[in-house]
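Residues determine shape. We examine one folded chain.
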Amino acid sequence: MTIKRLLTLSVVILFIFTGCTQVTTTTTLPQGTNTVTTNDTTTTTLTTQTPLIGEVTGLEDETVIKNHYFHVLKGVQALSSTGEDITSYITISGSVDYGTVGTYDLVYSMDYFGDVFQETRTITVAEGTYVAPTGSRPTGGSETIVLDEGSYRTGTESSLTHPINPAFIEADLLSRAVPSNSWWTTLLVGNYGNSNGIYTNPLKSSFSNEGVEITNVGEGFVQYWNPGGLQTMAQYSISLKDLFLKTDSLSLGYTTKVIDYSDTSVKVAMRNNSSSEDKMVVTFAQGSPYIFAEVAQKENVTIIAGTNGVDNYEYYDLSGTKINTLSYTGNAIILKMVRRHIGYECTPPANVGMPLYADRYFLISTPNNTDFTISSGNHPFGLNNKITMDLGTGNYLSVSAIPSLTEAAFYHSHADAFVTRGTVSYDVNHHNSVVTTDYRMNVQTMGSIQKSALIALMPHQYQYSNALLTNHEVRTVRGSLKLMENNAFQTEIEFNGMLPGFTLPENEEFSLSSITTYLNDLNTRTLVTDTENFLNADAPYWNSKALYPLSQGLIIADQTNNTSLKADYITKLRYLLTDWYTYSGATDTKYLYYNKPWGSVYYSDNEFNTAGELSDHAFTHGYLIYASAVLAMYDPSFISEYGEMVDVLLNDYMYPVKGDSNYAYLRSFDSWAGHSWAHGFGSFAEGNNLESTSEALNSWVGGYLWALATQDQARIDAAIYGFVTEFSAIREYWFDYDEENWSEDYSTYASVAGMVWGGKFDYATWFGANPTFIYGIQWLPNGEYLTNYGINADDLAKLQLIFEDYLDAKNNVIDTWYSNMWSVLAIYNPESAIAAFDASKILNDDYPSELSGAYWMINALSSLGIRTDTVKMHSNNLVASTIYMNDDGSIYAMVWNPTSSEQTIQFYNNSAFVYQTKVQANTFTKIEIPLL
């Protein structure tokens, strides 16, 4: 192997913070630095030429056995001189034809802030005896794990429902907890992934006997339904499949196995039954316009186009010249599906009209000197829908959907830049309250000349990024994806705070007598001895209908100095939470269980398939975590007694470390799509789905509050990152705040998506078509976090339009879920919410326990005004705040200090210091911020 150190770097980094008080910063730098700090300036100079790249390991020359895939990054790691993992900066040139005996050179390069590294390694493919990877998940007998006063179960537990084990994953990946709740995890639980949809945007794939499906789903069309006189609709793509990619060395009923995955990609090996040979390996990468494939046998690789809903097939070269012969030699061919059926002209209430057609173009890019043979693949009318390829100078190809013939050369220029892995990382700037997210792709250029990737950024990414975009874009059900020629980009999103509730209202309409009455009602209807109420429901999700109101009630009781009710609420919260956090024997019906094969935590109850399919974990766990954090504020002993058990549950969806053996990193959260997924496997033709975005947001709120209570910095940052990222995606895909993503046929009739899937979105819910449900499922539970929808004047106006569209759909009559709807109304018009408020309607609604919380929120918003992002708190790692502006321009901050000590906090306006004050220990208070 050959190593080159091309460049070292001497850098001067200057950080300047202005303000009236000293700013303390912590900066990790290479060795050999001098730092000078004053009250308002920190200057750091690198005084030696210390390489920023520390070491790169795993690049030894290697021999692999023929017909067994060689992963260019397996075992490779790069560390900075400070120990940070910077493997994501590596690019590779060259390829390994793992089905052909020979030697192959790979060049590994990286440029890390100007420090450049390059190394060549040689891979030898040889005949020999293959030794399969080894590894397994821990098993073991039934066991009770005791943590302080709490405990949970693990091992054999036949009385519970359990998920199917992840059987379709390479053994050497089992040293890590196995991910779930993602866009590709259906591949783990069934051969072919049970032929469910894998959406990478802009393409959709699946596996079947015919091979790998590659379909251009496009923007889809909108279809309308009218169940029971209630209007519903969906924007989605017709179910026709465009292409199937396969090699003739694969038999029917072949086996699929996940052999690698990253934050944004997954590799799937296709093997004949009872064989370990990788006949074909397919790489799916989110955001890539390509599906990448490598094969063991270069001959007789086939692509067959679908036969239904298409008039004809035409073939072109890269110049756009039509190929009129049945054979062609080159490094690319374009398949045109003439008049492809893509949907129907539909109108409300449920009319399906004429079919819609469009030409579809697919670019198949291959090595030089590839022979393409065009024929009929058993087409019912004998049309030439099949391409057979004998690959030329390599064993790889990529397939992309292109908008037009004129763009073929552009797409082809990046087609051999394979995205082999993707890494998403984040950094929270606690001074500026900004979350920077770094998206970085490891690119393997299959030829000898290194190229950058072609990446399709989603709206929630490019709206917050200064990435240099091309003029090329594609329309999908997620809106316009904009293409970038680069391996990496960043987004920056402001963090404006999270709180568990509101401080004491001071508006004239607020009545201490009324809130006391409502709190007493909450107390009497939530009795420990009443086995029929939500407090004693079997399922944890239904327990949340007691936990959340009780938690809010506890905050309110403290704010109103009602010590008697405060004590009662603490008792009831402890009763339910400690029941879940403790295993008390064979007759216990409420306890937590840790599943070793997955590395996941679920409940003794399987409601909503939280156990059997690992579904709804973030939603459900989030309620318990939120309640635990609020309880810990007012009963600090809860942390010492049950804190480790809370951590066990929180670890399941908000574990901030990658590659851990016990817990998956941010299970449920898709760092590329920007939001959570509900289903554990995503076992649907349309991919995974998410319905209740608000409950997803609440899970981050709960995690954040618990992290503050336990002073866990890694979790604090993870919760902030998750919240702001998920919120940015919700704005785009569930509410279309920028009015650019949905088809006009959808946005004309609604301002919300009830469910978003990998390949569609619905104006509907799982449980009913009432518009109150469709809008309301995005607005419950009714908490302070919802005010982020009106963080500035433009957003507030958009929220008002959305709510007015909801009212239009209901003929201006709210019919249920009054507590939620009035709470949202109060965000932009608290006076109207106060006028509409009717306690009797909530008491006779589905969730009467929400009465006190709704009354409190509506009046608090009348007191505080509207959210503002003009002033920010310097993100103190120990306290939380959000900031409001009243009608007279006064600025208020609510501050939650769960610590046992007084905290000093600072506020800034456009990065300039505004105000400093102290917040007493274990308090939730409102502060007026005098503007300079």
User: Anything to note?
Assistant: The domain at 872-929 is CATH 2.60.40 (Immunoglobulin-like). The chain is about 20% helix and 30% strand. The radius of gyration is 29 Å.
